[in-house]
Specification:
Length: about 60
């Protein structure tokens, strides 16, 4: 996966996770809230991975 696609899929997972959290909270569904937490964290990881890839590419390009 490229850095841009990591960041895009990461943001999508963050948004979906936050949506699940809100829906779970509104319905009193702790399991859904927890799944939302996990999905949001996964998204943040993808975004971070994309940023690292960008920095590595930039460092290699400067060599």
């Amino acid at each position: 996966m490229g850095s841009t696609s990591d960041k895009i899929s990461g943001k999508a997972n963050e948004i979906a996770g936050k949506t699940k959290q809100a829906a779970g909270k509104a319905m009193g569904d702790r399991d859904m809230q927890a799944k939302g937490d996990v999905q949001e964290a996964k998204g943040k990881g993808h975004v971070a991975a994309g940023k690292v890839k960008d920095k590595l590419k930039g460092a290699v390009d400067r060599l």
